[in-house]
Specification:
One of its GO terms (cellular component) is cytosol. The protein is an alpha/beta fold and 184 residues long. The chain has six helices and nine strands, in the order βαβββαβββαβααβα. Bound molecules: guanosine-5'-monophosphate.
Length: 184
């Protein structure tokens, strides 16, 4: 199964994804490629950091399940190759979620939102995004919410990390059971 964790920047998707994979050995977290430069203090494994030429070459070779340009940088999910008993977790944006839905029609699409704008702003500022980038991303979040509604994503609010992780685990559990249920 493919599980997409989408949502605006600064809602805590990375932390949630980390907890989900730590708690569930069946989940395999995909590592995206990005042409963005690494933020100060950012984990070197956060992305496969590449230049445009490397990204373009991989894309031409059909190496991405989906890709998106975001604020001038390219991001792409490499085509996953995992055992059938593993579920793939993608931490991507809503645009990518739409592309995944087009190719994997039973993907579980989740949209995680911040409790409010101030919390989102503080989180973006806290990780070192420049002020103009913070405001652009807050504005962007409005469009992402509308797109997520149109895509029929399941909406969750990250106001309590343990709770939202538990909710997502429950949704994954239900989706797994539905996928193995015998046809009537
Ligand atoms: P950031 O630069 O803040 O790490 O990520 C910018 C946005 O790109 C975030 O919403 C993040 O979830 C999204 N993103 C990260 N990797 C991918 C990817 O592989 N595909 C798509 N479509 N979006 C991604």
């Amino acid at each position: 199964m493919v599980i997409v964790l989408a949502g605006p920047g600064g809602v805590g998707k990375g932390t949630i994804a980390g907890q989900l994979v730590a708690l569930d050995p069946r989940l395999w977290l995909s590592r995206s490629w990005s042409t963005r430069t690494r933020r100060p203090g950012e984990n070197p494994d956060a992305y496969v950091f590449v230049d445009r030429a490397q990204f373009d070459e991989h894309e031409r070779a059909g190496g991405f399940l989906e890709r998106n340009e975001f604020h001038g940088n390219l991001y792409g999910t490499p085509r996953p190759s995992v055992d059938a008993d593993r579920d793939v977790l993608l931490e991507i944006d809503v645009n990518g979620a739409r592309q995944v839905r087009e190719q994997v029609n039973d993907a579980l699409l989740l949209f995680v939102d911040a409790p409010d704008r101030e919390v989102q702003r503080r989180r973006l500022q806290g990780r070192g995004d420049p002020p103009e980038r913070v405001e652009a991303r807050i504005a962007e979040a409005e469009r992402e919410r509308r797109d997520a509604v149109a895509l029929d994503c399941v909406f969750l609010v990250n106001d309590d990390l343990d709770r939202v992780v538990a909710e997502i685990r429950q949704l994954i559990d239900v989706a797994r059971k539905a996928r193995v249920a015998p046809p009537r």
